[in-house]
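Sequence, please.
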């Protein structure tokens, strides 16, 4: 999809340049000076006409190829989205929730691949942003819950962990927040897929989230400074285990907010922390939560 988009951009630029050059040949050159010069000017003018014609035909073919590829990407996006929605609806039917989550991750990544392709659409009304927000909705669930499903595999008291998971993903213990009331968004998708002149300028908004102040716990600015350093160390080392200088009170905050599994005190104020996956996305989730609160 990226290649098709870039070809269209390059051909459009080339078409514009040759059009300008040909216009200069016609209107700016004085063809009355000498015969030889006239011949060269005629030669260059005709050459530019040929290039312009070739660029126009190539652009037309590329646009047709792009529109066809766009349809294929959107069809696959929709197909994998429906598969993910169906799987979300089966959560309560699974005895082993960890198996359900493993399947969820696999189905999400199939869906995510086509979400990435959509990022390269030529877009006027930010339809790709809308479709990207749908992908992000399911991705935030992974960010929020990956650690809890990981703990679920080895927890002695599975009911406690399952209750915490259900507080985030279930409404009234029966309605799955991941697939409730997607009818409007599916209709919007179909309008984007079968786009017409009117639909080309229609803007859509995705207004669903499982991100709340209860599911994401914010900390003070002082602790956030420690989190910034922890994230840098995790990204540099490629590990969730980091050694950092941090106050005991801040360690307790991170434990209470469940951003770390455990902390081992070393010398002085240095601690070895085993961090949760969610901590890497702390600031991303904080920004997303603020946006959601502004939209309410």
């Amino acid at each position: 999809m990226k290649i098709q988009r870039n070809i269209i951009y390059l051909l459009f630029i080339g078409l514009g340049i040759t059009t300008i050059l040909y216009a200069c040949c016609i209107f700016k050159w004085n063809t009355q000076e000498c015969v030889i010069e006239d011949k060269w000017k005629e030669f260059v003018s005709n050459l530019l006409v040929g290039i312009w014609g070739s660029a126009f035909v190539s652009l037309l073919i590329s646009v047709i190829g792009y529109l066809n590829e766009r349809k294929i990407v959107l069809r696959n996006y929709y197909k994998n989205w429906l598969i993910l929605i169906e799987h979300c609806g089966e959560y309560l039917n699974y005895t082993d929730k960890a198996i359900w989550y493993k399947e969820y991750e696999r189905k999400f990544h199939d869906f995510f691949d086509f979400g990435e392709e959509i990022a390269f659409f030529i877009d006027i009304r930010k339809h790709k942003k809308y479709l990207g927000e749908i992908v992000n909705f399911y991705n935030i669930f992974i960010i929020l819950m990956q650690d809890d499903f990981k703990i679920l595999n080895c927890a002695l008291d599975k009911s406690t962990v399952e209750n915490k998971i259900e507080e985030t993903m279930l409404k009234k213990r029966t309605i799955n927040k991941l697939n409730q009331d997607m009818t409007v968004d599916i209709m919007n998708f179909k309008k984007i897929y079968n786009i017409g002149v009117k639909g080309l300028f229609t803007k859509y908004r995705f207004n669903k989230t499982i991100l709340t102040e209860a599911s994401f716990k914010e900390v003070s600015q002082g602790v956030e400074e420690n989190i910034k350093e922890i994230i840098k160390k995790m990204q540099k080392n490629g590990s969730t285990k980091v050694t950092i200088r941090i106050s005991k009170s801040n360690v307790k905050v991170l434990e209470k907010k469940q951003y770390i599994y455990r902390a081992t005190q070393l010398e002085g104020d240095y601690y070895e922390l085993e961090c949760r996956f969610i901590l890497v996305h702390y600031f991303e989730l904080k920004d997303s939560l603020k946006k959601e609160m502004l939209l309410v």
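The mean pLDDT is 81.
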